[in-house]
Design a protein that fits this description.
Strand content of chain B: 25-35%
Number of helices of chain A: 15
Oligomer: heterodimer
Strand order of the largest sheet of chain A: 2-1-3
CATH topology of chain B: Rossmann fold
Shape of chain B: globular
Distance between the termini of chain A: 40 Å
Helix content of chain B: 25-40%
Shape of chain A: globular
Number of strands of chain B: 12
CATH superfamily of chain B: P-loop containing nucleotide triphosphate hydrolases
CATH class of chain B: Alpha Beta
Largest sheet of chain A: 3 strands, antiparallel
Number of strands of chain A: 3
CATH architecture of chain B: 3-Layer(aba) Sandwich
CATH architecture of chain A: Orthogonal Bundle
Order of helices and strands of chain A: HHHHHHHHEEEHHHHHHH
CATH class of chain A: Mainly Alpha
Number of domains of chain A: 1
Largest interface: A-B, 36 and 37 residues
Number of domains of chain B: 1
Strand order of the largest sheet of chain B: 6-9-10-3-11-12
Structural class of chain A: mainly alpha
Radius of gyration of chain B: 21 Å
Strand content of chain A: under 5%
CATH topology of chain A: ABC transporter involved in vitamin B12 uptake, BtuC
Chain lengths: ~375, ~260
């Protein structure tokens, strides 16, 4: 009995056929879903180039507009990074924008107080920003515990915590923007990394000392500091998601939470960590907002949450969990920022932004579903 | 034959219900045990005690000659008892390697352990070894498990257990959701396991499957073991009658035809 059965080693014909057919279809599906957003972005840029040339005779593709788009994209992206991780574990974070506002208010309040007390600029900036970022851990931890331990759906938890945090931020700030910030705060937030002055050389983080007002138009300002910071943060989050065991576990949890549990993955701890991480990223977004606008406002991230979720979805993540990449979210954020910037440049009433973003999100979901049916 | 698992008078009650009533059985190396019974016969409860999900109320278990008390599925798995449930517990969005190493990923370490990354290449290589050991061929190891057939997924789940040194494999309805040719492949895998010294307990409703692979058949009814037969010394009719109770009635000497016990 043993000998007879051993001879039939399992090399069935069906599997050979599968080998030929399925990977092709699957890879085609993966390909479409990977590249469509890039192609869409390209068409968007071409469309805006033609439109802005005809309407205002402005070149859309320029150093200025690229940097403008990147600056627009920073806030969407910072929240979008955390949102990507959470959507991969089949959750959603509706509180992120309010956490951003909360961090902006707390950070700005600390800086306001320290500045008034005459502390050194280094102390004011480092303590202020650090407290703004760290305070975001609190809502993140509460979100995580409620979702992972108490099993409240993430949609409800983060909605509740978001509204609650909005209330706290309103109480802290009294409903007004937190102003009276040190002048150097705005300088940091609006500085760029390189200032290139032809024939004079490059200086870093500020205009060359010798330049006078009349020289400024000749100086090329390259790479806004907040864009650089966002790039670094993005690279770190990409590394965490794509390379580390923690990131790997996020995909496993999103794919099959029960299987992850049975395999010994610390599901609860991982979920709590991911909500904290997302909140901290929103906190970074909050202090960057403060630096940009020399202020802190409870509603600094009001529209960002949904834009960020949109960018994650455009980037190919599945709201059912288990799928999504940082690269995808970057493209999604760039698409939204390009639409916003392009419409402003064309002088279109800004309300059209919302309509455009809504359409793009729906197109993204349709493309995604189309790709999936194709793969089956 | 060397004994691997011995169960003595295992009992499990849920409130007033005795789900498993003083069941004893032996599993030896080189065997495939078919565990049969109608719904609610106590098969799953018995298996869950062996795999550490339930604590038995009475009775004892010996694994490899050593008395064991499992307080969690983890304990049982650490001893080498692997259970594959119908849902297979695979993360279908991940590739084969990632599933075999789910929760126990192979890591690269950098800067003296400060930075650790998942070593996908190594996981894939090890996956190939595990699959080769069972003569399993898959179309592609880089694909998501989602794109594999039901039988191939079952093979991945089995390969995972084997990779982690399963000494006893318990399979709950392994062929239930499969097409005919896929069923046959899975049964062949069961034989491969047995030949490699890993005995298998199969829970199934499918009489054909059990007769195809099992060396010994154990029948349960209403929480009790009502029969134990060598497969080559019985036939499906006898087993069915054991499952529904006719045989038990005869064995215990009650005459079904007589209306009056006097």
């Amino acid at each position: 009995m043993t000998v007879g059965e051993k001879k039939e080693s399992p090399t069935p014909r069906q599997e050979t056929q599968l080998r030929k057919g399925k990977p092709d279809r699957a890879s085609r599906l993966v390909f479409i879903r990977k590249v469509w957003a890039w192609i869409f972005l390209l068409f968007l840029v071409i469309g805006f180039s033609i439109a802005s040339k005809q309407a205002n005779d402005i070149d859309f593709v320029s150093l200025r507009s690229v940097q403008g788009i990147l600056t627009y994209a920073t806030q969407i992206l910072l929240i979008g990074l955390g949102e990507t991780l959470i959507i991969i574990v089949a959750g959603i974070d509706l509180s992120a924008g309010w956490v951003l506002g909360f961090s902006a208010v707390v950070g700005a309040t600390v800086m306001q107080v320290l500045y008034a007390s005459g502390a050194s600029p280094f102390i004011v900036i480092s303590v202020g920003m650090l407290s703004g970022i760290l305070v975001a851990v609190i809502p993140g931890l509460i979100n995580g515990i409620l979702i992972a331990r108490v099993k409240v759906p993430s949609f409800i938890t983060t909605l509740g915590i978001g509204v609650l945090i909005e209330g706290v931020a309103l109480l802290v700030s009294g409903g007004y923007p937190v102003v009276k910030q040190p002048p150097y705060l705005g300088q940091i937030g609006n500085s760029s990394v390189f200032y290139y002055w032809p024939d004079h050389g490059i200086s870093f983080f500020k205009y060359p000392e010798t330049a006078v007002q009349a020289d400024l138009p000749n100086i090329s300002v390259i790479l806004p500091t907040i864009v650089l910071i966002t790039m670094i943060v993005t690279a770190v989050v990409w590394f965490i998601l794509a390379k580390t065991q923690f990131g790997h576990h996020l995909y496993a949890i999103g794919g099959n939470m029960e299987a992850a549990k049975r395999a010994g993955i610390p599901v609860q701890r991982t979920l709590i960590k991911v909500y904290i991480l997302a909140a901290v990223l929103a906190g970074i977004g909050g202090v960057i907002w403060s630096a940009r606008f020399s202020s802190g406002a409870y509603n600094a991230g009001e529209t960002t949450t949904l834009n960020s979720i949109a960018s994650v979805v455009i980037g190919g993540a599945s709201l059912f969990g288990g799928e999504g990449t940082i690269i995808g979210t970057i493209v999604g954020a760039l698409i939204l920022a390009t639409i916003q910037y392009g419409l402003v440049l064309l002088g279109v009433v800004p309300f059209w932004q919302f309509i455009a973003v809504g359409i793009v999100v729906i197109v993204a979901v349709i493309v995604d579903q189309f790709g999936r049916t194709l793969g089956r | 034959m060397e004994n691997l698992l011995r169960i003595n008078n295992l009992t499990k009650r849920f409130g007033g219900l005795t789900a498993v009533n003083s069941v004893s059985l032996d599993v030896n190396i080189g065997e495939v045990i078919g565990l049969l019974g109608d719904n609610g016969a106590g098969k799953s409860t018995l298996i869950k005690m062996v795999s550490g999900v339930y604590l038995p109320d009475e009775g004892e278990m010996f694994f490899g000659g050593q008395k064991v008390n499992f307080s969690s599925p983890r304990d049982a798995r650490d001893m080498g008892i692997e259970t594959i449930y119908q849902d297979l517990a695979l993360a279908e969005n991940l590739d084969v390697g990632s599933n075999i190493f789910l929760g126990r990923e192979i890591l690269h370490t950098y800067l003296g352990g400060l930075i650790k990354t998942v070593n996908r290449t190594k996981m894939r290589e090890e996956a190939v070894k595990a699959l080769d050991r069972l003569n399993i061929r898959l179309p592609s190891l880089t694909q998501q498990v989602l794109n594999l057939s039901g039988g191939q997924r079952q093979a991945v789940a089995i390969a995972r257990s084997i990779y982690w040194n399963a000494k006893l494999m318990i399979m709950d309805e392994p062929t239930a959701a499969l097409g005919v040719s896929e069923q046959r492949k899975v049964l062949r895998l069961v034989n491969t396991l047995r030949d490699q010294g890993v005995p298998v307990i199969i829970i199934s409703h499918n009489m054909q499957d059990v007769f195809a692979v099992a060396t010994r058949i154990i029948v349960m009814r209403r929480g009790k073991k009502v029969g134990e037969r060598m497969t080559n010394q019985t036939n499906p009719d006898e087993i069915v009658s054991l499952m529904v109770g006719a045989e038990e009635a005869q064995e215990s000497g009650i005459d079904l035809n007589s209306a009056d016990p006097e």
